[in-house]
Amino acid sequence: MLEKDNFLKYVPIFADLDDETLDKIGRLGKYKSFEKDSAILMEHETGSALFVIVKGKVKVFRVSDDGREVILSILADSDFFGEMAILDGLTRSASVSAIEDSELFIIQRSDFLDLLYNHPEVSISLMQELTKRLRAADMKIKSLSLKDAEGKVATVILQLADDIGKIRQGVVEIEKLPFQHDLANMAGTSRETISRTLHSFAKKGLIELDGSKLKIPNYEKFKELFQ
Ligand code: CMP
């Protein structure tokens, strides 16, 4: 966990700010803890706060009319969420809940908008992150509409590698893989397909599975095959 007092320095959208401004932001926001499985915000609610993850993991999801959950993204330490309702003034675009005990730093809308007006470097970093999320969403649209089961599962593995994986010397490790039914909800396929495909990838040496840990021994090759 990052030290509370200086964690803002490690949040990419705030990384270019000087210490004085970081101190000011630190005083503007407040910290709040959320237990694993608790709701943080709900789709369609009105929203007036931005959330930064100090420690923990959350899932961003939507629920279909027949009650099925689709996970859009998993966010972890130093990521932010809740910016969409702040920026466009509409209701929350998705629900967010904690998948681990999490500590969040919460900034109110007017304070965040002041920051964007007064510090263009924060606005640019924010746009860079939103661009990254749009690219991930584009990849998912392609995967859902064009790819076979292997392609869909591989796309989810690539998304998780990007969201919560740690890369070292071309090897990616995802410490805690989500449950298979969550992977199925991310991939738009069944739990059985997830299980079968993961084992087939492992047999081909494309991934290594050890309990809830997943390793991609050759990340570049994996990307080349499935991106
Ligand atoms: P907001 O709409 O205010 O509340 C829900 C939040 O989930 C949203 O802001 C974003 O921060 C986040 N979110 C929505 N869609 C995605 C996505 N596809 N990838 C990552 N985060 C998302």
Computed structural class: alpha+beta
Largest beta sheet: what is the strand line-up?
A: 1-8-3-6
3D shape: globular
Q: Beta fraction of the residues?
A: 15-25%
CATH superfamily of the largest domain: Jelly Rolls
DSSP summary: helix tally? 8
CATH topology of the largest domain: Jelly Rolls
What is the domain tally?
A: 2
The count of DSSP E runs of length 2 or more, i.e. the number of strands, is 12
CATH first level of the largest domain: Mainly Beta
Rg (C-alpha, Å): 18 Å
Q: Please give the share of residues in helix.
A: 40-55%
What binds here, in terms of ligands, is:
adenosine-3',5'-cyclic-monophosphate
**Poorly predicted runs:** none
Describe the overall structure:
The radius of gyration is 18 Å and the shape is globular. The strands form 3 sheets. It has a 4-stranded antiparallel sheet. The protein has a 4-stranded antiparallel sheet with strand order 2-7-4-5. Strands 9-10-12-11 form a 4-stranded antiparallel sheet, covered by helices on one side. Strand 11 (208-210) and strand 12 form a beta hairpin. The protein has 227 residues and is an alpha+beta fold. 43% of the residues lie in helices and 24% in strands. Adenosine-3',5'-cyclic-monophosphate binds next to strand 5, helix 2 and helix 4.
